[in-house]
Design goal:
By secondary structure, the protein is an all-alpha fold. It folds into 2 domains: 2-173, no CATH class; 184-281, Cyclin A, domain 1 (Orthogonal Bundle), CATH 1.10.472. Helix content is 65%, strand content 0%. It has 16 helices and no strands. Helix 2 packs antiparallel against helix 13, helix 8 (132-142) packs antiparallel against helix 9 and helix 10 packs across helix 14 (249-262). The radius of gyration is 20 Å and the shape is globular. Pfam families: RabGAP-TBC. This is Rab-GAP TBC domain-containing protein. InterPro entries: Rab-GAP-TBC_dom (IPR000195), Rab-GAP_TBC_sf (IPR035969).
Length: 288
Amino acid sequence: FDKVLGAAVIDLGALQALCWSGCPAEHRAMTWRLLLRYMPGNAERREDKMNRLRLEYADAVVHYFDKYDPEKASLYDKTMYNQIYVDLPRTNPSMPLFQNEQVQQSLHRILYVWAIRHPGTGYVQGINDLVTPFFFVFLQEVCWNGEVMKFLTPSQQQKVEADCYHCLTNMLDNAQDNYVLDSKGIQEKVFKLKRIISRLDEKLVQHLEANDVEFLQFAFRWFNCLLMREFSMECTLRLWDTYVADKSFASFHVYVCAAVLLSFSKELKAMDFQEIIFFLQKMPTEKW
């Protein structure tokens, strides 16, 4: 990583291959920015482009978020603003960091600007979870301790937000159909998951069907939140190293979900409907 990242012009193919197998924490922020095509690989162009994109985000915050007026806002704008506000307390509730008021204000700005600038999809529940790995990684790059937000300057906070916004945007470009209004993309992936499990463990599918368990009942969230509610942040970051390195991560994620489900095949075959649903909603994966 040191050699690849230290080059004047970074070999993104080589970096992609390295990141796919896991990225050291100290290199993760820069690596993710590069592989998501937010940060230029050419060192000479890097500062100018980063400053321009960060300023672009800051201007969008002033234009869309700071000037938000519920009395004058359109129905769409009010719906987006209020839905994000409602979802913030439920965002990664197991981590105290994301219950911090200052952090939630940052997330509100990032998600609202994203929703306004992406009216084709808009904000839907689940996207609030997807911004948290970026926030964690970019915040950790700046400073990390028990009271991190108290030591973050306004300038640093603005950079963290801008980087989260642009990286989230570029990552979701590769999974847009997951977040359209009818969730067509997620439904197709859930059906693909069922086909994969049918080939690999037909008896598990038969047991689920015999107990009237539909794949959509438990797998929808796995695709909507990319398993973030099932895994710890540490596990999520490792998984996302691979996803960031793979433009087709949304398709690869189907196989990750299949591996997770198959790992509990024996336990699931011994359960009835209620036990299955409860188990799959709270799988013992928090220490993975």
